[in-house]
Design a protein that fits this description.
With about 400 residues, the chain is α+β, with helices and mostly antiparallel strands. It is built from 14 helices and 20 strands. Helix content is about 40%, strand content about 25%.
Length: about 400
């Protein structure tokens, strides 16, 4: 088989890139090592920045996100028993975020891809990249027990943190920056109305909690849990009891509980691999970087990487210029590191760390107080939460 761009991974990064390239007439094939059902069963992010919505629009798949996504103009911070609203819309000069689940984004992209008759090879095993430093790289994989080869011009490594793409870059070239946090998030999805119409981020003596949602009838809640916690040790009842203890009195009273549809634990990590391009291989999304979910930036960064890559590939195929390709890593990393900084800061502010001590605790309280009382500090939070601007995608926007 032969294509222009071989995409490894059918997560949101790979699927979005595939759809964008298709709108620009650039041929692509996606190789995914799991089944479509498995990919769709993963419950992950829920908050989209405007930049991500814009890219869905350029790809021609934004209709359902606009129709069914919930626009959010603010978030609430809960500490010392009180909730404080951060008016994202006003503080950011009129921007907002949209609550629309990653599962839905993935579903919309998969449907559009199938509708356009584009090739996605699911259950592609033992994917291996070769010749990434040459002008004609190849991807080898096994499908239904048969060895297959895909020839291409470029490879987009959209295969997440555990994927094979990043590991193909020689260790002498790749630098890794990493911080692992001593706790994780226990998440529950349930068909109950959200406790509040806006997200609540809570810093409490019992640990962090987050009240989020997927719709007006489906809630997503998270609790900070120590490393080593096993999901089997948390019954639904235990989860709801603990969540109630981490809410203010009014929210605790309003909380509606019900059976969980999904329950899982996500470890928290900050990670960046540099550079994001080597030869004809580009890394995008979680394959290149991980943020702790506190700032809701993981999916949004995956989308902005893909925006930069799409722009660079159009420039290459339409104008024969390698400028975008040569600057891909640098352009992405500037935005990535700012989101890493924000996610690290918001995580540090909202969680209880085992090593904090009384002094650290007082500092955290002082910062939270300052954050909600100072216009400058709330503005900085709002500006980062709605998403930092993306450099103009001159070539990509002509397609949309
Ligand atoms: P994904 O979604 O991990 O998709 C990568 C795809 O590549 C496939 N793959 C391979 N395919 C072929 N060959 C191989 N060798 C392969 N290895 C892997 C995988 O099966 C998969 O389909 O990466 P992508 O597209 O970059 O998207 C990134 C987002 O998924 C991610 O940033 C967010 O979901 C992060 N994240 C969250 N972000 C938020 O903003 N808010 C959240 O609440 C939130 N919760 C989460 C999360 C990530 C989690 N992970 C990674 C465990 C919760 C969890 C549990
Ligand atoms: C979610 O709804 O899953 C979600 C929302 C906001 C976050 C993280 C996760 O910061």
């Amino acid at each position: 088989m032969k294509t222009q761009v071989a995409i490894i991974g059918a997560g949101p990064a790979g699927l979005l890139l595939g759809q964008l390239l298709h709108t620009a007439g650039i041929d692509n094939i996606i190789l995914e090592h799991r089944s479509a059902e498995h990919v769709l069963s993963r419950i992950r992010a829920g908050v989209l920045e405007q930049v991500a919505l814009d890219l869905l629009d350029i790809a021609g798949v934004g209709q359902r996100a606009h129709a069914e996504g919930l626009p959010h103009d603010g978030i609430e911070l809960l500490f010392q028993g009180q909730r404080h609203r951060i008016d994202l819309h006003q503080l950011s000069g009129g921007q907002r975020v949209t609550v629309y689940g990653q599962t839905e984004v993935t579903h919309d992209l998969m449907q559009a891809r199938a509708g356009a008759g584009l090739t996605t090879v699911y259950d592609a095993k033992d994917v291996q990249l070769q010749g990434i430093e040459s002008p004609s790289p190849t991807v080898h994989y096994v499908k239904d027990g048969q060895a297959q080869t895909l020839q291409c011009d470029f490879i987009a490594g959209c295969d997440g943190y555990h994927g094979v793409s990043r590991r193909t870059i020689p260790p002498s070239v790749l630098r890794r920056y990493e911080r692992v946090y001593p706790f994780g998030w226990l998440g529950v999805l349930a068909d109950v109305p959200p406790v509040s119409h806006e997200l609540i981020y809570a810093n409490t003596p019992r640990g962090f909690a987050l009240c989020s949602m997927r719709s007006k009838t489906r809630s997503r809640y998270y609790l900070q849990v120590p490393d080593g916690t096993r999901v089997e040790d948390w019954s639904d009842q235990h989860f709801w009891d603990e969540l109630r203890l981490r809410l203010d009195a009014e929210a605790a009273q309003r909380l509606v509980t019900g059976p969980s549809i999904e329950k899982s634990i996500a470890p928290l990590r900050s990670f960046v691999a540099e550079p994001m391009r080597h030869g004809r291989l580009f890394l995008a999304g979680d394959a290149a970087h991980i943020v702790p979910p506190t700032g809701a930036k993981g999916l949004n960064l995956a989308a902005s990487d893909v925006g930069f890559l799409f722009d660079a590939l159009i420039e290459h195929y339409r104008e024969g210029s390698s400028l975008g390709i040569d600057h891909y890593s640098e352009r992405c990393l500037r935005r990535v590191w700012r989101a890493e900084r924000f996610s690290w800061w918001f995580t540090s502010l909202m969680h209880r760390f085992p090593e904090t001590g009384e002094f650290g605790q007082k500092i955290q309280e002082a910062e939270l107080g300052y954050l909600v009382e100072s216009h400058a500090a709330s503005t900085a939070l709002a500006e980062n939460y709605v998403g930092l601007p993306m450099e103009l995608l001159a070539h990509a926007r002509q397609v949309g």
